């Protein structure tokens, strides 16, 4: 009897939101990290658990993820929060960052390969500002450097009115009288009383938020990334300006091959916010429930879709996890096609609900593969 020659199979390509992302052996993932002042609520947790899962799925498909997750430790929101609490902004940032890393470890989120902190990237931001000035993509006024942002909203399909509202909401100061256009964005912001300042060729000042992320992403990864990840609320202005500045700087577009914006978590239909007093913090959740249950509650849904948190979601998540673990305990070795089915379902837009159904039904090695790939061990 002759044994048929084995045919090497190519793992399925990843599809995100209906788009195929062809990859070779590595994938660069840049995730907009935290501004360390009110971490860690369930919204942060959902974003970073999904980014971690994207990396794990890529690895299961034979692609090594290289993850960079920054820390925005120079930020007006952070400085203002520190002022309210009577602490130094860098002390507050260091403390919150420590808490955040503990929460991520508890949720079985792998540490990123790179974790740049904005305060170490002031010099690259100054170089970025100078290059944007040289390209006439930015101009200097009163010691600040502004990126010409009039066309950015249009490029992501937003009307001016919405763009102005979002710019104001996210600290973009559209009413700054020094700007030529209200949608221009500070690459370098001249110093004001009470804010940290560094020397620059223009005036002592601090980097703008979008420019910080551009400097960190390009310093770590070069001209672009395969995946740029973050919460859905970062679409505009942050991600849109990030891409626009990076593309002007490198002359290469698109900056990101794919965007991985994770759906937002609401509570009773409302956005989670400190000001609304409805933050669901991770600490008490993890004190009352196993981390794997919280993780599965986050993952057992479409990654890009907004969802509403209620405590009622935890019991069904615990039940589902139990079924998966029971299935994984069935000591059978799964045939290659069972494993391939799990990989194929995850490769299809990270379809965790379908992969869970299949793994629970198939059991054995297929369920064990899913336990590992979803970080639920
Ligand atoms: Zn960012």
TrEMBL record:
Pfam families assigned to the protein according to its UniProt record, in alphabetical order = tRNA-synt_1e (PF01406)
- Record InterPro entries: Cys-tRNA/MSH_ligase, Rossmann-like_a/b/a_fold, tRNA-synt_1_cat_dom
Checking Gene3D superfamilies in the record gives: HUPs
* GO biological process per UniProt: cysteinyl-tRNA aminoacylation
Q: Which GO terms describe its molecular function?
A: ATP binding; cysteine-tRNA ligase activity
Q: What keywords would UniProt list here?
A: ATP-binding, Ligase, Nucleotide-binding
Which stretches make up the tRNA synthetases class I catalytic domain? Answer: 26-317
Q: What cellular-component terms does GO give this entry?
A: cytosol
Subunit info here reads: Monomer.
PANTHER family found in the cross-reference section: CYSTEINE--TRNA LIGASE, CYTOPLASMIC, CYSTEINYL-TRNA SYNTHETASE
**Protein's name according to its UniProt entry:** Cysteine--tRNA ligase
Q: Which organism is it from?
A: Amycolatopsis rhizosphaerae
Classification of source organism? Bacteria, Bacillati, Actinomycetota, Actinomycetes, Pseudonocardiales
């Amino acid at each position: 009897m002759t044994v048929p020659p084995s045919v090497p199979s190519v793992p399925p390509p990843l599809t995100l939101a209906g788009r195929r992302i062809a990859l070779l052996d590595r994938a660069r993932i840049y995730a907009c990290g935290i501004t360390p002042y009110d971490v860690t609520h369930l919204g942060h947790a959902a974003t970073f658990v999904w980014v971690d899962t994207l990396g794990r799925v890529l690895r299961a498909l034979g692609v090594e993820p290289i993850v960079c997750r920054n820390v925005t430790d120079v930020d007006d929101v952070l400085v203002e929060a520190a002022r309210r609490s009577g602490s130094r902004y860098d002390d507050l940032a260091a403390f919150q960052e420590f808490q955040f890393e503990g929460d991520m470890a508890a949720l079985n989120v792998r540490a990123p390969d790179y974790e740049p902190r904005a305060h170490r990237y002031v010099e690259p931001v100054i170089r970025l500002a100078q290059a944007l000035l040289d390209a006439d993509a930015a101009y200097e006024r009163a010691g600040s450097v502004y990126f010409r942002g009039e066309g950015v909203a249009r490029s992501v399909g937003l009307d001016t009115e919405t763009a102005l509202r979002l710019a104001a909401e996210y600290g973009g100061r559209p009413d700054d009288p020094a700007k030529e256009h209200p949608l221009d964005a500070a690459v370098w912001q001249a110093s004001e009383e009470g804010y940290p300042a560094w020397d620059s060729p223009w005036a002592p000042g601090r980097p703008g938020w979008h420019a910080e992320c551009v400097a960190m992403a390009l310093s770590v990864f070069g001209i672009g990334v395969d995946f740029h990840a973050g919460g859905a609320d970062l679409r505009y202005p942050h991600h849109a300006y990030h891409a626009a500045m990076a593309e002007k700087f490198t002359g290469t577009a698109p900056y990101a091959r794919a965007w991985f914006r994770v759906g937002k978590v609401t509570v009773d239909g409302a956005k989670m916010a400190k000001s609304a007093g409805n933050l669901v913090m991770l600490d008490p959740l993890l004190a009352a429930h196993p981390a794997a249950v919280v993780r599965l509650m986050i993952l057992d849904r479409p990654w890009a879709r907004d969802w509403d948190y209620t405590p009622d979601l935890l019991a069904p998540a615990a039940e589902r996890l139990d079924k998966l673990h029971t299935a994984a305990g069935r000591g059978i070795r799964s045939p290659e096609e069972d494993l391939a089915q799990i990989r194929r379902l995850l490769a299809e837009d990270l379809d965790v609900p379908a992969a869970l159904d299949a793994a629970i039904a198939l059991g054995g090695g297929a369920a064990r593969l899913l336990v590992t790939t979803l970080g639920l061990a």
